[in-house]
Every structure is written in structure tokens, then in C-alpha cells.
Design goal:
- This protein is mostly helical.
- Among the domains are: 39 residues; 60 residues, DNA polymerase, domain 1 (Orthogonal Bundle).
- The protein has 9 helices and 2 strands, in the order αααααβααααβ.
Length: 165
Amino acid sequence: MKPDRHRFQVSSVIACCISASAALLLTLCVFAPVAIAQEPSDDPGAQEFQAVCSKCHPPDRIVTGRRTKTQWEETLEKMTKLGAPITDDNYDILLSYLVQHYGKVNVNRSAAADIADAVGLTADEAQKIVKYRDDHGPFVDFDQLAKVPGVDAKKLEKNKDAITF
């Protein structure tokens, strides 16, 4: 008895459809966050970032890891030397955007202004962190940092990946 050729063809088609669907789902999971990050914004920093940095490379390549303010300054300097259109007019806008959205900060060593910028805190909240650090010594972990009186722990949690100790 011959195998049912029609059944074999249908099951092959179904298997191909399932594989294609899985591949599409995987692609969406991987690239959707990048697409969201690339959407234009009313933020002048985001617009400047798109205009300047995206000329040479995709935005997701630029912001693959968080950097300190000093590291972002070095990156902007390097890109300027390589020909990126970074000027006195857009430098501060770019730096501020990169630090606020892709910055990192060591809460045991940094100034209050740097903590505020990288973590999204008010100047007052960042100053409370510095005062607590000065009075009680370095922070051991995130839980200790989140208990600083007068600091919004939700803001800290939201930007937890920007914080180092």
C-alpha cells in the first residue's frame, strides 16, 4: 500500500507555517524594542540623537550598554574626531540625552547632579542620597539605597540598571 501523498504534503505545509510563525514571533520579540527606541520623539535630545548618530550606525548599536557621563563624553569626542556632526550647539543636548536615557552612575562616588541625571531623580532626592552616603558610609546594595528617606524608591526601581555601587 502506498503512503498517502496528500497527507504528507499537508503536514509539510503545516510544519512550514508553524516554523515561519515561530521565526516571525522571534523576530518581533528581538527587534520590537529597537523599533520602539527608534521612534521619533518630542524630546530635542532624541531628535538630535537620531539626526547625528543614526547617520553612521543603527541606534541600537550605539546604546547597547550604559555608560557613565565621562564615558559618554569620551564617546562623543571620539565620534567628533571620526567626522560625526557634533557641534558646540548640539553637544550638550546629545550628552544630556545619552546620560538621562543610557547613563550609569556609581552612587557611592558620584556627585548629586550626576546621580540625578542618570537615575531620573530630582536634585533634592539626589542630594539626600549623597548626604545619607556621607553620614552612613557607602551603600552596600540596592535595598539599602531604596530606603534613603525622602527618595522615591519607584524612580530608583525604574532606573535600577543605571545604578552601580
